[in-house]
Amino acid sequence: MRTIGNILWAIFGGFIQFLLWGVTGLLLCITLIGIPFGLQCFKIAGFVLWPFGRDVIYGGSAPSFLMNILWILFCGWELAVSAIVLGLLYCITLILIPFGIQSFKFAKLALMPFGTRIVRV
Fold this sequence. Notes:
about 120 residues; mainly alpha; two-stranded antiparallel ribbon
């Protein structure tokens, strides 16, 4: 069931979010300072492309908190807004509500990517 959900997710908008995370990661990796942020984008891009059957565990320390603050200021809010808009569009129909829930999960992840772990459920 997870595989079917992931394939449908990729077709109905997951690929768009994957591209957003990937392009953001590439742009951040251009600069030396942005490399840690870009690598985090690539990690999350893989999760965004194939989300069903995996979950996010939040945690972290003071450096993670500081990195999340910088992340929100420069890139996180744009990715969070795009995930919220897609989630609201998905939730308009009854059939795509599970995709909307996944998209809202990505919005939270877009605001706090540092100090998180992606685990299989």
